[in-house]
Amino acid sequence: MASAGRAYFQPDTTLAVQNGGVQMIPISTPRGKFNVWTKRFGHNPRIKVLLLNGGPGATHEYFECMESFLPQEGIEFIYYDQLGCGNSDNPRDTALWSLPRYVEEVEQVRQALKLNKDNFYLLGHSWGGILAAEYAFKYQQNLKGLIISNMMMSCPAYGQYAQDVLAKQMKPAVLAEIRQLEAKKDFANPRYMALLLPNFYAEHVLRLPLDQWPEPVNRSFAKMNQSLYVTMQGPSEFGIAGKLLTWDRTPDLPRLTVPVLSIGGKYDTMDPEHMRMVAAKVQHGTALICPKGSHMSFYDDQQTYMAGLTRFILGVDKGEKEVKL
């Protein structure tokens, strides 16, 4: 075990000067070249998990809880700020905020990091789950495993779930005031977020008291690229209204042959039954529904989430196509 631990934490011997695993990767886009930030944590030639943050427009930082769980299992993971996010370049060009372009960005990152079908696990959370799925539909031959975390495979169905299920759980007076502000498109009104935070975010995004949200989450959300977020998602997590409005890959799920873990939370902004359906429709799927979890189940149902995630990754590493949790 001690020797395995030393191997996991060994530095990159190809570097003359160590920098903590950070690698800036040049990305070609239709608007020129930019650089995106990545950071490797640990070393395992067979298991390399690339993390795709949500938002869109948040940062890798809310994934920092992974450091408390994955190293002890020998799982290497890679933080990555997508273009326009966190430590990566921000070209401030909405023409670059597009799903197909982000898929090609992930492919360029994969090539630069030398990830392949023998070691490459892709974990996408929320918007990152859309990006991970879309990447898999085009490039699944490069993947060893795919984790779709807290994301439905249909934005219309997500919007419908918000209206038909989640909205009805709100107090009628609160919902009425939210609807009034939305009708006026008065999203910048402080009252709008003042209503959503306790009545929606604290119920369905992260089920902890607002003053106890983990510091990495607050730090990441404080850096949200609002241009990217609003362009793709719309002004609120309460439904969807941006470029992703009509995105729906549900009919294509049987095309996925790579092992897939579909994660949801009982109190998620996403329908947990939809997440079960995703696991059933892909060729080799496993569902993990966190009974205490919401959209950020890796914080509010942490033990369930991390146990299931590590079991899936280690199971696929052993050759299991459909991992039993």
From TrEMBL:
What organism does the UniProt record list as the source?
Hymenobacter fastidiosus
Coiled-coil ranges from the UniProt annotation: none
Give the UniProt family note.
Belongs to the peptidase S33 family.
AB hydrolase-1 domain: from which residue to which, for each copy? 49-301
One example of the protein's molecular function in GO is:
hydrolase activity
- Does the UniProt entry include the keyword Glycoprotein? no
Q: Which UniProt keywords apply?
A: Hydrolase
Q: Which Pfam families does UniProt cross-reference here?
A: Abhydrolase_1
According to UniProt, the name of this protein is Proline iminopeptidase-family hydrolase
